[in-house]
Hints:
This protein is mostly helical and about 190 residues long. InterPro entries: FtsL/DivIC.
Amino acid sequence: MSDEARPGSNREREETTTPRVPRPTPGAKPGGPAGTTGKPAASGGGKTGAAGKAGASAAKPKVRRPQLTGRAAILAVVVCAIAMSLAYPVREYIAQRRQLTELQAEKDKVLAEQRKVEEQRRQVQDPNWTKRTARERLHYCDPGAKCYMVPKPKQSGGTTTATQDSATPPWYETLWESVVAADTGETSGS
């Protein structure tokens, strides 16, 4: 049996393997054909004539790639679909977090009010607090005790400010009087 007839022979392996891609040379243009450096060919040297032009055009084919490929369009559609599908749940999550913080603040407020009411309830149940409040607010006296009431002094400064305020009319009355005076043609100075 010959090498060609045997399965697994060297010739069969050579035919089934993929062709090797030549390695790029140092200074080569990325994505360009192997062996090109990205520098324009120097004129005067190398191939000349029709053969030189054909060789140059074969070495550098000008293939214009479309800016938006099919894969990029599909990727953009998938990204938009994911963004659209996540937009509503994210918005609901943010709204629920906001509502949760509002409810937490309301709960804290209600608990503070509850503690305040509980403290007031304890005070009302205390008989000493009731007597003290009756003496202070309602001026009650215990039976057999002498109570004195000292009147609060009148504030002299408060009455003078009241008379001063009544002497100058409010700004809107002054404004209205000036409008009426302008309408009738009267002047306040004469």
